[in-house]
Amino acid sequence: MNGIHSGLWKSDCNKVVTALLSSSDQTAVVSYPMSRFAACQPTQQASFDLLELACHAKEIYLKKLQENDAKLKLHCYRALLERLLKDSHPELTKVGKIGQIKHAEHLPFTQYATLALQKLGLDGALSADQLSAASTECADTWKQVVAFYGLRLLLAPIVESLLLCDRMMFLQEQGICCDSVPVFDPVLSPRNHVLIAVKHQDNVTS
Fold first, then answer.
1. How many Å separate Cα 37 from the centre of its chain?
2. Global pTM?
3. How far is Cα 47 from Cα 51, in angstroms, rounded to an integer?
4. 148/31 Cα distance (integer angstroms)
5. Rounded CA separation 13/176 (Å)
6. Which of 63, 67, 100, 171 is the most buried if burial means most Cβ atoms within 10 Å?
């Protein structure tokens, strides 16, 4: 294939590979848009949350729903704990990453929250009464949180397609032929596309 330059771009985790994030507000300062076409559109910036959403596969979540996975209620656990902390301690502008809690899906909310607060270095930040009241609320609302998360995931492939199309248009604007091809099952990873680009030698600049 003399005279042709080719390349293959694996679509990896957008929030890691393509975004340079501001440590203060998690705003993506680089990643989208890349193409001139997208840059001319009314909505030009892709937030950290938007890029993070594109990193999830609805197929994986669907499987959890079908299997009635006990881990589904952890969405409510985390959201409720964060809300309690923000309501009780407004000075906490950002709640850190909790990390793994063994068998968390089998714990009552009060025990989960106690262990999570210890991991966050906020032991005792919430009273036993607050946690007890929240536990009752979680028992009544966790399925609503699951439904909301499921609806949110329906947007993930749209965001992923938008990012891929923007990168393809960027390459095409440089005179490079390209295509996006799915190479494996999205259940393994939603990053299942590769962007294949070919540039003729005549268009290569020194």
1. 25
2. 0.69
3. 6
4. 27
5. 24
6. 171
Q: In what order do the strands lie in the sheet with 177-182?
A: 4-10, 193-200, 177-182
Q: Tokens 């906490």 — which residue?
A: 92
Interior angle at CA 36, CA 201 and CA 195, nearest 5? 55
Distance CA 77, CA 166 (A): 36
Q: Give the 3-state secondary structure of residue 204.
A: coil
Residue of 177, 164, 160 whose CA lies nearest to 34: 164
Enter the tokens of residue 51. Answer: 């890029």
Going residue by residue through the chain, which has 206 residues, state the pLDDT in tens, using 9 for 90 and above. 444 455 555 555 554 444 444 444 444 445 788 899 988 888 767 777 888 888 888 888 888 899 888 889 998 999 999 999 999 988 887 777 888 899 999 999 999 999 999 999 999 999 999 999 999 999 889 999 999 999 999 988 888 888 889 999 999 999 999 988 888 887 777 678 888 888 776 655 43
- Rounded (to 5) percent helix, strand, coil in the chain: 50, 15, 35
Cα 164 from chain centroid (whole Å): 16
